[in-house]
């Protein structure tokens, strides 16, 4: 009887041991599944961040390309305007000189002192006004390129995302050091600054 009892008890212990091992195996499976799920979530997060970064870089590149194209177009337009003004000035100056010479050669000596003077004054006045117009056009173009902060140096920094080009490189180094900087033109928060080189750089 004792032997049977011992065997019976030993058999129960064996069953219990098997049961414990089986349950331990289930715990390992559950733990493995949790680890796999955590890794999948981490990979998904990394992929999402990568896609977001690529999209941001693509958008910044698109804006930069558009800005460069705009700067090139504006520069060419100002160059064409200046060339046209120079041609107009040269043509008007030649026409005025030719008119003055023809008038002086055709006027009678007796009337030269009375009639040539007003004609010469008119031509001189027209030439003076044309020079003033050309100077004012150049001054206006220079004002458009003047830094909004120091009012001295030429603008050379493009602010993103607003794409305004209103400050120089020197002012950009010190602008917004104490907090989140905003564009001095439109007050939009500055996310990025790009150095560009214009005609005088």
TrEMBL record:
Residues 147-187 form the RING-type domain. InterPro entries: PIR2-like (IPR046934), Znf_RING (IPR001841), Znf_RING/FYVE/PHD (IPR013083). It comes from the Eukaryota. Gene3D superfamilies: Zinc/RING finger domain, C3HC4 (zinc finger). One of its GO terms (molecular function) is zinc ion binding. PROSITE patterns: ZF_RING_2 (PS50089). Residues 29-102 form a coiled coil. SUPFAM superfamilies: RING/U-box (SSF57850). Keywords: Coiled coil, Metal-binding, Zinc, Zinc-finger. PANTHER family: OS05G0141500 PROTEIN (PTHR46405), RING_U-BOX SUPERFAMILY PROTEIN (PTHR46405:SF3). This is RING-type domain-containing protein.
């Amino acid at each position: 009887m004792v032997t049977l009892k011992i065997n019976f008890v030993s058999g129960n212990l064996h069953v219990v041991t098997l049961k414990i091992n089986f349950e331990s195996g289930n715990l390992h499976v559950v733990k493995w599944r949790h680890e796999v799920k955590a890794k999948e979530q981490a990979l998904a997060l990394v992929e999402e961040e990568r896609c977001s970064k690529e999209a941001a870089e693509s958008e910044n590149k698109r804006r930069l390309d558009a800005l460069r194209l705009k700067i090139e177009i504006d520069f060419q337009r100002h160059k064409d305007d200046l060339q046209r003004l120079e041609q107009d000035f040269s043509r008007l100056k030649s026409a005025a000189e030719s008119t003055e010479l023809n008038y002086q050669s055709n006027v009678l000596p007796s009337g030269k002192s009375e009639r040539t003077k007003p004609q010469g004054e008119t031509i001189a006045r027209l030439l003076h006004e044309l020079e003033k117009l050309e100077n004012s056009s150049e001054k206006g173009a220079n004002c458009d390129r003047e830094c909004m902060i120091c009012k001295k140096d030429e603008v050379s920094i493009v602010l993103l995302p607003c794409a305004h080009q209103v400050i120089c490189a020197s002012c950009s180094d010190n602008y917004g050091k104490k907090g989140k900087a905003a564009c001095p033109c439109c007050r939009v928060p500055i996310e990025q600054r790009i150095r560009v080189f214009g005609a005088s750089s």
